[in-house]
Design a protein that fits this description.
Helix content of chain B: under 10%
Largest sheet of chain B: 5 strands, mixed
Structural class of chain B: mainly beta
Helix content of chain A: 25-40%
Number of strands of chain A: 10
Strand order of the largest sheet of chain B: 2-1-5-3-4
Radius of gyration of chain B: 12 Å
Mean pLDDT of chain A: 90
Number of helices of chain A: 9
Order of helices and strands of chain B: EEHEEE
Oligomer: heterodimer
Distance between the termini of chain B: 38 Å
CATH class of chain B: Alpha Beta
Number of domains of chain B: 1
CATH architecture of chain B: Roll
Strand order of the largest sheet of chain A: 5-4-3-10-9
CATH architecture of chain A: Alpha-Beta Barrel
Chain lengths: 302, 66
């Protein structure tokens, strides 16, 4: 009765577990810390603190960045971000944003460490190092960044180092002791996405060549969810973003989209994309077509 | 004595401690870090560290950032 060929062993399908843990965003390790999500999100530029809190939750992030600023001793606005961050849930990553010299960046890092130490947050000895060289483009100053990275690494910090997408600088920062190198996709807050994917490919190749677990995090420039997916498809270990969520029309929904894009992009990377080809290849069998024109033939007269 | 706090120079009582100074900020002390003349003073020393004339003090907290 049954003339169909036997089905292949169905356990082959059951065994196809995506990623290592069944979810696209399987987490990763940086500076000896396990982060449950490959998305790191910033806490800046939200209209309100509750909007920030809800967006962080929707993103699924385990690590969030914060900045160190002067306390307004005399004219307080009344709200402190720490009242809106669940410190049992998030690892804080203090940044050195706004610093234009290695000296100032090292000071900001030490102040951030002091606050996290007294909060007993596990992020206390790491820092997102950012030393800017130009206020219009917010591009990093590579010389000062390298200098600060060396000093902070010697001072016991785990340095997650923001840099441009230049592969040579990235290699120098890794050699200087950065726990992670974090190339920008495009300028901070610009939403231009990944402007030079080839440079990011080269950075990933160079930094992971003899050290496949070395974490490379794409930081800055993300505009929408597809940018996040693209970064993961290139092989990035994580993506750090802020403005694309905070300034979306609906930040909570965009945060959710970013989390889904991280999972999708990571899964696609692990699955292995097909090579791009110039010409088509048929998805349906070439055998048994009800057509007078054989597959692959040119029409008469051409 | 004159002390500059977060960029603003003002007169303070002689020998004022960091602890007394940060009481001006209406936030829990563990939300703050203090730097005197560009060196962090650990919170455990705030009660005993007395400021001196001409000191430059930074009192910082965490804010939203990327």
């Amino acid at each position: 009765m049954n003339s169909h060929p036997p089905r292949p062993d169905s356990s082959a399908c059951d065994a196809a577990t995506p990623g290592e843990s069944g979810s696209g965003d399987d987490g990763f390790e940086v500076a000896g810390r396990r982060l449950d999500s490959r998305l790191i999100v910033g806490t800046g530029r939200y209209d309100t603190m509750p909007a920030m809190r809800d967006s962080l939750a929707a993103s699924g992030a385990h690590c969030v960045t914060v900045a160190v600023r002067r306390e307004k001793l005399y004219d307080r606005s009344g709200q402190n971000i720490l009242d809106f961050l669940d410190l049992d849930r998030y690892i804080l990553l203090p940044n050195t944003a706004g610093c234009y010299s290695a000296t100032d960046a090292v000071r900001a890092a030490r102040l951030g460490r002091e606050i996290l130490r007294t909060l007993e947050n596990p992020g206390q000895d790491w820092v997102k190092l950012e030393v800017l060289g130009d206020s219009k483009t917010l591009l990093p100053d590579p010389v000062e960044t390298l200098r600060a990275c060396e000093q902070l690494a010697a001072d016991g910090f785990d340095v997650l180092c923001y840099t441009s997408d230049d592969p040579v600088t990235a290699r120098r920062l890794k050699a200087a002791g950065a726990a992670s190198v974090m190339p920008a996709g495009s300028p901070i807050g610009s939403g231009q996405g990944l402007l030079n994917p080839n440079n990011l490919r080269i950075i990933l190749e160079y930094l992971k060549d003899d050290d496949p677990d070395y974490p490379v995090i794409v930081d800055a420039g993300v505009g929408t969810a597809s940018d996040v997916a693209e970064a993961f498809e290139l092989g990035a270990d994580a993506v750090l973003l802020n403005t694309a969520i905070a300034h979306a029309r609906d930040p909570v929904r965009m945060a959710r989209a970013m989390g889904a894009a991280a999972a999708a992009g990571r899964d696609a990377y692990l699955a292995g994309r097909i090579p791009k080809r110039l010409y088509a290849t048929a998805s349906s069998p070439e055998e048994g077509v009800i057509s007078s024109r054989p597959y692959g033939s040119q029409p008469v007269g051409e | 004595m004159n002390v500059t706090v977060n960029g603003v120079a003002a007169e303070y009582p002689d020998g004022v401690t960091i602890e007394r100074l940060v009481q001006l900020a209406d936030v829990p002390p563990n939300y703050l870090a203090v730097e005197v003349n560009k060196d962090v003073v650990p919170r455990e020393q705030h009660g005993t560290h007395r400021l001196r004339d001409g000191d430059t003090v930074e009192v910082v907290t965490l804010v939203g950032g990327g």
